[in-house]
Amino acid sequence: MKQVLLALLGLAVLGCGSKNPQPVASPGSAQPESTSGGEISDGGRCMPDGPGYEVSEYDTSGDTTPDVRKLFKTMGEGSLARLVLVCREADLNGDRRKDIVRLYTEEGRPMREEADRDFDGRIDEVTQYSNGRVSLQEIDTSGNGMIDTKIFYEAGQPVRAERDMNNRSTVAEWRPDRWEYYVDGRTVRIGTDLNGDGKVDRWDRDEERLRNSALAKQRSTEVSQ
């Protein structure tokens, strides 16, 4: 539940912040504070890497410290020139370190999001987008620095999850031992690998939900014909 609340908080801050966020720096008027090595000192990544960029920072918590940073890029030339949001990041817990960053395509659609949900300084959740919708989430739920959960989406809805319950995966090899399948956001089937050979040894099914789902699909097909 805590992780869900943090995720919702992150989306809210990245989406709009408070009702009246206060700009700390006007677009293009200032650059984020950087270290001598060129990295942003608050752990952020929304940093201009050439001409045509503008930075805007906002205080959404009311403590006079900027907690949201947006990076815009000028697309097009002349009368067709426009500013497009390409990066947005936020400090979720008020420690002046950026905890979540979302990258956008040149059309302004979400492309990738990385988040530190437990505020330990390491990314533990990566979300991929396709055509502006979530397509894949990779999560480290144990805090050991390794991905142990992958959730796959279709049309923005979760349809399948793969989990490494025994932490056997490596950077080079993904070794799930539990597979979950969803219909309308509800779990209808779970497969478990009991002996570590990568194959399902036991299936647990919600027969009623599977039956209702099949009936719904049949009715939908009949209506469309």
Structure description:
18% of the residues are buried. Strands 1-2-3-4-5-6-7-8-9-10-11-12-13 form a 13-stranded antiparallel beta sheet. The protein has 225 residues and is mainly beta. It is globular. The longest helix has 18 residues, at 207-224. Helix content is 14%, strand content 36%. The protein has two domains: 1-24 and 42-107, no CATH class; 124-225, Lipocalin. It has helices spanning 2-15, 207-224, and strands at residues 22-25, 53-59, 68-75, 82-90, 100-104, 110-115, 125-130, 133-139, 149-154, 157-163, 178-183, 186-192, 202-205.
Q: Secondary-structure blueprint of this entry?
A:
Blueprint: H1 2-15, E1 22-25, E2 53-59, E3 68-75, E4 82-90, E5 100-104, E6 110-115, E7 125-130, E8 133-139, E9 149-154, E10 157-163, E11 178-183, E12 186-192, E13 202-205, H2 207-224
Antiparallel strand pairs: 1-2, 2-3, 3-4, 4-5, 5-6, 6-7, 7-8, 8-9, 9-10, 10-11, 11-12, 12-13
